[in-house]
Amino acid sequence: MLxxxxxxxxxxxNGAIRGLDGLRRGxxxxxxxxxxxxxxxSSEILYEGGKLRLRxxxxxxxxxxxxxxxxxxxxxxxxxxxxxxxxxxxDNLTRQGIPLYLTDWIPPTDSDTxxxxxxxxxxxxxxxxxxxxxxxxxxxxSMLGYCFGGLLSTIYTxxxxxxxxxxxxxxxxxxxxxxxxxxxxxxxxxxxRLITDTFGNCPAWMVKTMFSALSPVHHAxxxxxxxxxxxxxxxxxxxxxxxxxxxNSDVPLAGQIFRELHTNLIQxxxxxxxxxxxxxxxxxxxxITCPLLNILGEHDDVVQPQATEPLTDAVGSRDKQTLSFxxxxxxxxxxxxxxxxxxxxxxxxxKQHDRRRSARxxxxxxxxxxxxxxxxx
Length: 377
What we know:
Blueprint: H1 2-27, E1 43-49, E2 52-57, E3 68-71, E4 82-84, E5 87-88, H2 89-94, E6 100-105, H3 117-136, E7 141-146, H4 148-159, E8 164-170, H5 184-188, H6 192-199, H7 204-213, H8 216-229, H9 236-247, H10 255-267, E9 277-278, E10 281-282, E11 292-297, H11 305-308, H12 310-314, E12 320-325, H13 331-334, H14 336-352, E13 373-375
Parallel strand pairs: 3-6, 3-7, 7-8, 8-11, 11-12
Antiparallel strand pairs: 1-2, 1-13, 2-6, 4-5, 9-10
Helix pairs in contact: 1-8, 3-4, 6-10
């Protein structure tokens, strides 16, 4: 018992140090994205502008005709999707022949406080889709959004339905009235203007506090007990170290989108009620008519299944499906069961919906001047 207490204390202390290092990065005026761990999968940077850096991952074997744009969340760095060999959504999908593009969001600085849903959706995502269309030579893309990225993808598809051939949402927080988390009610009472008037953007340390509050016991104790129990498993400690680096990779949220998220969605639940406006346009989920695959984690304690599930009925699509997978919010991307079972299902769904070939464009879709850079392992 004494050995357990001593080793647990050491693990907990190491975790506290990692947390302080994450705090340092979050307090840096320009977030040090260069401190991300080396990627597992090679990529090219095709475009950089606004708050977007767009990465391209080449497929293995015969590629699908329709490329996939993976829209990541805004609140942490995206290397959780390419954590290490054998635990990589990106590698899993590209090995299934899927041409994959990733939104590697550029963390906001003090000059980006006015970046809201309109700028991210009708600015950055519009440019991302145009770049993908031009690079792949297609008129439509498939889109996959994870968590906050699912919100952005859903809003984009509702406003620009003609651009999206297939939509996949993963743990999308749609109906905030169904979130049944003890500390969530306290979070709803926060005055977002007080935060942005004080800091400009929502600080990274506050983003982390809100995220950790959704599952406080796990973040404080349970994960270290799991590490102690699995310390002899080959590769587990290395995976845990990378995972913890991601857990402490919180970035600020631009002031405007933080206010809109809190007021219009967390408090007002406007998107689920078809009352949200972005750029002066009503976001009506019934305008989404493309095939939809709505994925939820049965054990998700961050975006609970009942908050995700209503999207399937809310859209106007005829071809729509809810896929429930037995994992938590992060387990849907990093667990071995997700790598072996969930992502092959996602790839099969995309292949099934790729059979009707997208018309290839004969002319470039825009005058964007993409930046190209190869990022090696």
